[in-house]
Amino acid sequence: MTRSEILDAAKEAVTKDRNATHGEPEDIFSAIVRLWSARIGVELQGHHVAIMLMDLKTARAWKNPRHDDNWVDMAGYAACGGEVAEKDYRALFCTSELVEDTEGKK
Predict the structure, then answer these.
(1) What is the pTM of this model?
(2) pLDDT in tens, 42-88
(3) What is the 3-state secondary structure (H, E, C) of 22-90?
(4) Crossing angle of helices 3-12/68-93, nearest 10°?
(5) Is the dihedral of CA 75, 79, 84, 89 positive or negative?
């Protein structure tokens, strides 16, 4: 696959296919955060889930670098992780007034 094909497949997966099957990434990542945080005794956030899922795919790609699904999923997890990280940041650190101001709406 070319990089464009990988990104197109990842976009299709995270905005349509998997989204329809599993729901919004932040919802499933929140469920995983609760499970993994309880298991390992460390408070995680949604973007940590994306990073660790990319680690899983990295390990698989190391063993089988020509398996396209690994690359597609890493790109998808990166996109979801970036979006979830932004939402986590805004929820933790931004008041609505600050968010409006940083977006140039004030």
Answers:
(1) 0.81
(2) 999 999 999 999 999 999 999 999 999 999 999 999 999 999 999 88
(3) HCCHHHHHHHHHHHHHHHHCCCCCHHHHHHHHHHHHHHHHHHCCCCHHHHHHHHHHHHHHHHHHHHHHH
(4) 60
(5) positive
